[in-house]
């Protein structure tokens, strides 16, 4: 296989279709694989930056494009785009992304990790439930949206969640309920962290201005350590 650029747009097969995404490689050229799942804004510069940051930590990071190139910074439009994304379509695309990532010569892990935000956090949990032992670590940040699975019985990954005590989109009690449901139904190791912040506190480009640097820093450090320990 020819050497790959450190950062590039890529295409990969998914259920007979061609899907697209953004791939970031570590300086060493090889590393464990992590799938980065977007917020409802689309595959934004922020999500690409998250992939780049993971690459700087030694991971091969793939951010699949769930909206086929559409990006917005308008909440109403974002909600509309999310509502038009059938769960089964996203699930197939993410399964294709996982197959593609594990097939890369640059990936030296037999499993993948996943990390996602808002809508992407919901799909992190869905992918873990769908793919079983192929996903060894799943990190949802305030995982909401139609991607959140009804059942977690298929989850084999260790779960580390990051949620906000003052989340105006996903009340913290629902996050506690989600945490307990995952633990009860999957039997997997589950740890949720709660921050004195609002929804999307990790996104430094969030249009609502909810970014909280200190909470984001702490959560990111925990997430990177968790992925490093559990993806191999």
TrEMBL record:
GO terms for molecular function: hydrolase activity. Residues 21-229 form the Dienelactone hydrolase domain. It holds the Pfam family DLH. InterPro entries: AB_hydrolase_fold, Dienelactn_hydro, Dienelactone_hydrolase-like. Keywords: Hydrolase. SUPFAM superfamilies: alpha/beta-Hydrolases. The keyword Glycosyltransferase does not apply. It comes from the Bacteria. The keyword NAD does not apply. This is Dienelactone hydrolase family protein.
